[in-house]
Amino acid sequence: MVLQPDVFVVVPAFNEAEAIGAVLDELRPTGATVVVVDDCSSDTTATVAADGGAIVLRHIVNRGQGAAIQTGVTYALRRGARIVITFDSDGQHDAADLAALVAPIVGRDADIVLGSRFLEPRSAIPPRRRALLKLAVLFTRLTSGLQVTDAHNGLRAFSRRAAATIDIKLDRMAHASELMDQIRRSGLRYAEVPVRVRYTPYARRKGQRGVHALRVAFDYLVGRWVR
Amino acid sequence: MTNFQTIALVLAAILFAATLAAAAARAINRRAAFAWIALWIAAAVAIARPSITIAVAHFLGIGRGADLVFYCAILGMLIALFVIYLRFKRLEREITTIVRHLALRDEEAAEAASSEKAR
């Protein structure tokens, strides 16, 4: 697949030394510029990422996924990115989906493209995960008013204009809901494309537990009040 | 006057003086100083003339003056907790801004150093 170097792939990573090497091996042939934001990992994530040919930004204090993504996006914009993609570091996403993900932006049909595992029949979503994610989608539809099918997918693409408009302020996991709010308020055009999510044993072990959902919802609701 | 009243009033007077000193030294801003001074005066009045709190309590339908003071104290602490929580959130955001700034600056420095070496 051919992506130009002015397509930046931002990979937020926290203690992903085990998995991030394979992720970068998958991203390298795409031709995009890969930026890993190491969120103060205690393992060798930063070294593995640098060896994997990525530009590595390092948070000196752990600030959470939302913060790491915003750092990567800010960096990409400064380096003249035309398109910014966010891509998880645990190996759950498939680099083969990137071409379809950027297509609506290249074709000027959308400013933001959201990956949706629920539109993709090949996503073998574990039943409990599916139930939780569906609840989260319902929550997002109620709070943001956006009729998305998958609100918590880490694979997204932003046009330069969209990336510059979005400003993620919620440091931890509530940034996904915050993003939906910002999309609606900004009036940016969004599209959803089917993407595959690989539920590897590793990704499932590292992933968010169901009990965290309440904390995330609380962070989000408080975040709406704090400036 | 009971011993309790004497001790509590002396304490309120000390806190009152400490607040004035802090305000004079600009350790706290004017608005905070007024709020604290109002609190110490209210406390002193409630201690010296318990009949006033009883009257206010009865007016509100609360049985005892001590209960009124107790409820007000709990309410005040909850408000303080909430204000501190919001301030804490804001502080977290500010930390993130600093961490982000450093991450970007460190990368820029490394980039400059490596291009220097290449030359």
Quick summary of this structure?
The complex is a heterodimer of chains A (227) and B (119). Chain A has helices at residues 17-27, 45-51, 65-78, 98-106, 127-144, 160-165, 175-186, 201-206, 212-223, and strands at residues 7-13, 33-38, 55-58, 83-86, 112-116, 156-159, 190-194.
Instruction: Return the string of H and E elements of chain A.
Output: EHEHEHEHEHEHHEHH
> What is the CATH superfamily classification of chain A?
Spore Coat Polysaccharide Biosynthesis Protein SpsA, Chain A
Distance, first to last CA of chain A: 42 Å
Give the spatial strand order of the biggest sheet of chain A: 3-2-1-4-6-5-7
- Catalogue the unreliable spans of chain B: none
> How many structural domains in the coordinates of chain B?
2
Shape of chain A: globular
Order of helices and strands of chain B: HHHH
The parts of chain A where pLDDT drops under 50 for at least 5 residues are none
Please give the largest β-sheet of chain A: 7 strands, mixed
% residues in beta strands of chain A? 15-25%
Rounded Rg of chain A: 16 Å
Protein structure class of chain A = alpha/beta
Q: What fraction strand of chain B?
A: under 5%
- Sum up the overall morphology of chain B in one term: elongated
Average pLDDT reading of chain B:
92
Number of strands of chain A: 7
Number of domains of chain A: 1
Oligomer: heterodimer
Determine the fraction of residues in helical runs of chain B and give it as a percent range: over 70%
